[in-house]
Structure formats: C-alpha cells, structure tokens
Amino acid sequence: MIAKSVARCCCFALLVASPLFAADDYKLGPDSQVQAGVPQGKVTQGKWVSEKVFPGTERDYWVYIPAQYDGTKPACLMVFQDGGNYAKTDGQFRAPVVFDNLIHKKEMPVTIGVFLNPGNIPAAQPDQKGRSNRSFEYDSLGDQYAKFLVEEVLPGLCERHQLKLTDDPEGRSTCGISSGGICAFTAAWERPDQFRRVISHIGSFTNIRGGHVYPALIRKTEKKPLRVFLQDGSSDLDNLHGNWPLANQQMASSLKFKGYDYQFEYGDGGHSGKHGGMLLPDSLRWLWKDYAK
C-alpha cells in the first residue's frame, strides 16, 4: 500500500510539475530562419554621436536595407530601440531575417530597418567607465526621444546611407523591448504625424520615470491614429517600479476602452525576448496587414 501511495504521489507531482517545464518554452518558426531562394537584405553598422538632442552621447546603430529597395521610390520605415538585440541574425528576434522572408512573400511592404542602441556618455577620464543614458532616453515621457529621431537621426542616416523614406506616417513604425518598448510607444504617442504603428515587447509601462500613467492618459486623451501590438508574460518583473504583467494588461484594457486598433499577446514568459521573438513574424503581418490597400 505504501509503495502504491508513493507511486501515486510521484505521478501527481509529475503532472503538477510538467507545465512548469513548458513555461516560456517558445521556439522560432520558419519565418525567423534563412530560407533558400529568398533575397537577403544588407545590414550596415555605424556609430552615431548626438550633437543636438542628447549632446555628448554615442551609440551604435545598424541599418537594414532590403534587397528589393532600389532607391527609386521611398521605402517604409521601422525604428528599433535596443536595436542591437533585434539586428542579430542569430538572436531572439532576428529581425533582418524576418524582414527578408516577409518582404519576399509580400506580407509586409519594402521596409528599411533602423536599429538604434541607447546612448552612452563616454568617461571623462581613461580610468573611468562611461555611463548609460538608456533609462533617461527610453523611460522618460515627453517628445525628446521622438525629436531625436525626427530631427537628428533619421535625416542624418538618410544622408549618410542615401536612403529615401516615406513621409507617410502610416508607413513609419517603432519597436522596442522593455524600456525600449515604452520608448517605442512614446515616440508614436507624441508624434503620430511621424509614426503610427508600434510593437512593444515586455514594455516597461511602470513607474521608472512616470510611465505608469499611460493607461489613464489613453483613457482621457482623444484617440490617436495608432495601431499597437503589445506582448508580455505572466512571469514578467514585479519590483519597486511596478508589476509588468499588470501594467501591460492595463495598457491593453485602456486601448480597448478607447477603441484603438490593438493586439495583446499574453503568455507565461518572463522578462526576455523569447515570446516576442517567436511572435515577431505574425506581429509584423498584423502591423502591416492593410498597408498595400
């Protein structure tokens, strides 16, 4: 009897524990893999030193130019915050590979990707370390980062790389993860005349620098012409700044209340890009679903 009871307990423990092993077990699909016969775009890396909006900061950037872009007409645009994470072709997102596959299948328009890392303030002395400007740039509310994109980076990169970008805000989008996610939303929220499509992965809509007010602002502000994709997971952060899962659920609830064109994917993942990376092809299809029309 004891042996049978122990066996039953072990079986029950396995049944209870098995979902835990599956949590956050997200795998990349075929659209995130290099496919034979699909033209590959070119990724160029550079460094941007801000002289206007965030003077003294330096940052790495990457520009993705699709194979279908020939410069005869303007391309759509997608700006990625924490861009180094997205630009890697062997990382969690693999955005250049996804762009190649979706543009080839005409499931998204010909789109130039601009991947920006947050700024870094160089050390004053050789024996000192530089200081990251990420939280100030990404978590702050207001139009400063949008101004950085519109008035400084994008015109500069267009000149440097001889790019033609559409002036149509419906053809301009932003994307980011964590603090980069709230930054992507803020850029579009502040400048819907420039950006109208947003993807936020595990967005930090919490009280790091006041971002927790967005759900209330959305409800009390006249609806803006934005399309917003949100992703988060039940195991995301819970700390002194707030609860990320609750914050993203509040964002989704407010967008729904106000009648926004939005989508919210809520999984069981933590504070990582695994779930968002798996969803990236489908989220891009949804984001651009009616642009050709």
Largest beta-sheet details: 8 strands, mixed
Number of helices: 9
Query: What strand line-up does the widest sheet have?
Result: 1-2-4-3-7-8-9-12
**What is the general shape?**
globular
CATH homologous superfamily label: Alpha/Beta hydrolase fold, catalytic domain
Radius of gyration: 21 Å
CATH structural fold name: Rossmann fold
Mean pLDDT: 93
CATH architecture heading: 3-Layer(aba) Sandwich
Which CATH top level class fits? Alpha Beta
Q: Give the terminus-to-terminus CA distance.
A: 70 Å
* Poorly predicted regions: 1-21
Write the layout of secondary structure elements.
Layout: H1 2-22, E1 42-49, E2 58-65, E3 76-81, H2 83-87, H3 95-104, E4 111-116, E5 120-121, E6 131-132, H4 134-139, H5 144-161, E7 172-177, H6 179-190, E8 197-201, H7 214-220, E9 227-233, E10 238-239, E11 242-243, H8 244-258, E12 261-267, H9 274-287
Parallel strand pairs: 3-4, 3-7, 7-8, 8-9, 9-12
Antiparallel strand pairs: 1-2, 2-4, 5-6, 10-11
Helix pairs in contact: 3-9, 7-8
Structure in a nutshell:
This protein is of the alpha/beta class and 293 residues long.
Describe this structure in words.
The chain is α/β, with parallel strands linked by helices and 293 residues long. The chain has a single domain (37-121, 130-287), classed as Rossmann fold, CATH 3.40.50.1820. The protein contains nine helices and twelve strands. It has helices at residues 2-22, 83-87, 95-104, 134-139, 144-161, 179-190, 214-220, 244-258, 274-287, and strands at residues 42-49, 58-65, 76-81, 111-116, 120-121, 131-132, 172-177, 197-201, 227-233, 238-239, 242-243, 261-267. The strands form three sheets. The protein has an eight-stranded mixed sheet, with helices on both faces. It has a two-stranded antiparallel sheet with strand order 5-6. Strands 10-11 form a two-stranded antiparallel ribbon. Strand 10 and strand 11 form a beta hairpin. Helix 3 packs parallel to helix 9.
